[in-house]
Fold this protein.
Amino acid sequence: MNIKNYIEKHQQRFIDELVELLKIPSISADPNFKKELLMTADAVKINLEAAGCDKVEICETPGHPIVYGEKIIDESLPTVLVYGHYDVQPPDPLELWNSPPFDPVIEKTEIHPEGAIFARGACDDKGQMYMHVKALEIMIQNDQLPCNVKFMIEGEEEVGSVSLEWFLEHNQEKLANDVILISDTGMISKEVPSITTGLRGLSYVEVEVESPNRDLHSGLYGGAVANPINILSKMIASLHNDNNHITIPGFYDKVEVLSELEREKMAEAPFDLEDYKNHIGITDVHGEKGYSTNERNSIRPTLDVNGIWGGYIGEGAKTVIPSKAFAKISMRLVPNQDWREITDLFKTHFESIAPKSVKVKVKPHHGGQGYVTPIDSIEYKAADLAFHDVFGKAAVPQRSGGSIPIVSLFEKYLQSKTVLMGFGLNSDAIHSPNEHFGIWNYLKGIETIPYFYKHFTKLYLETNH
């Protein structure tokens, strides 16, 4: 396959096109950016058409639109459905960025001596989604597309893919496929490719604690009236015990417990604890007793406060007891934990531990189910062979701590298995200031993806004929 030569010839254009896409602030969590989300959907449509899709359309949903594209070469051949998202996380806090989040810059780093693109969405997921667009271009331009391909690029992944279930339910025939291919995960390192075989589910809630009907003078009322911030802090602290075990009754009832053999296999993956600590600037790790760092962030459920606020936080002093305090809390879930059930358990428990001196509200935001993919399927084997072709070694199966709610919905509505071929690194700072994506990783993804098509088509035809 002529892939490497084509990439070398068009490398700068591939980078420039991604940079242009990254300039658009497609922030799905903020309704003020609706116009920019529509601009991004239009840009994705134009790029899919330029890459060689015969049919591309922007599909309306109850929320942000979905970009659908297809290249059907032969109905008797298998079909790969590529999923990605064009929306991004909010860039806050802006003051921690070394350069503006939507003014992409390329800088060399220790991990990326060839340069990395710094911008919000560089890795999650515009950069990784766009690898597939360029891989399609390469296959079509070199007359090497071995099967049919469809694209479904959405604009709500960062807010829970709230319209996707509706879209899947109403477009099952349009989206019919034989495998779903996603690059919204990572690999262990540039030297060690990996395939994500498991994702955690998610339950995301917002809580409100209220006491007085207005902010009060802390001198006149302090000590006699419940302070919502004090109460909320105590309630949150009680959600973990001394072993960092979550205290919500029933929370662990359906948690998948891995065998010792499975845990031993996981431990074989390369991991340096000191490098891990140094990279994120911590003196020690922290988590549930009895589990390793890699187990805590992949096969065990978690509960974390993502934001907390209330009272006066401006310059100087203002001595008040606030009327209300708030927090946003996410729970990462493992297979067999139903996110709706966990949300209900949280709500019941959180309301039950509130003292009579306050009123509590729990507002569910969004969620999704966990997912585990088998490693003996033809799609996994095809991905493994593709990595071997490009990296010269087999990929390591790896469970991820992240969540992609759409994966379990794909299986429910399309009866399709998903293969997760990610090219990001843990150091890419996704969801954080200074998010970036290595140019080496970006181009390596473009190089590897066509080999997946080649091997999947071959294995599919051997299995089905």
